[in-house]
Structure to design on (144 residues):
């Protein structure tokens, strides 16, 4: 049997990479425990019977190919400062901060247009830049 989650506590990168590449598990967390369940973008599931899903076409491949989610906790000063709210004693400020960090926020619809607008303006800007460079270096001659 293979574990649903594998927890590795080590600051040695070689040890972390060895566990990541040489073991098979549903998910893996380095230097922390259970926190990967709170990350919505990490898949959670097991290998084998607990990892079964849909099949046919490309779904057959994804069903029988397990993508192991790996979360590595960094011991940087910022990470430790934000992570300290998880540990007792639980004062009021810690409870308020955790409420803010765990709040599920919806992105306003007007902000969802930003990637499209950025691509549009990048395309327009690159067109003018190419034209300007072509004129400056006489790369294209337009004869009439």
């Amino acid at each position: 049997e293979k574990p649903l989650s594998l927890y590795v506590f080590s600051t040695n990168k070689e040890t972390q990479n060895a566990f990541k590449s040489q073991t098979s598990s549903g998910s893996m967390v380095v230097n922390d425990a259970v926190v990967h369940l709170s990350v919505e973008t990490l898949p959670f599931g097991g290998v084998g019977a607990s990892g079964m899903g849909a099949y046919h076409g490309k779904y057959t491949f994804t069903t029988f190919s397990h993508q192991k989610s790996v979360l590595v906790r960094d011991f940087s000063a910022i990470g430790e400062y934000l992570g300290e709210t998880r540990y007792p004693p639980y004062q009021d400020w810690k409870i308020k901060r955790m409420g803010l960090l765990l709040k599920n926020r919806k992105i306003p619809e007007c902000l969802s247009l930003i990637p499209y607008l950025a691509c549009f303006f990048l395309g327009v800007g690159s067109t003018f830049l190419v034209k300007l460079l072509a004129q400056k270096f006489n790369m294209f001659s337009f004869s009439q």
Notes: The CA atoms of residues 43 and 69 lie 6 Å apart.
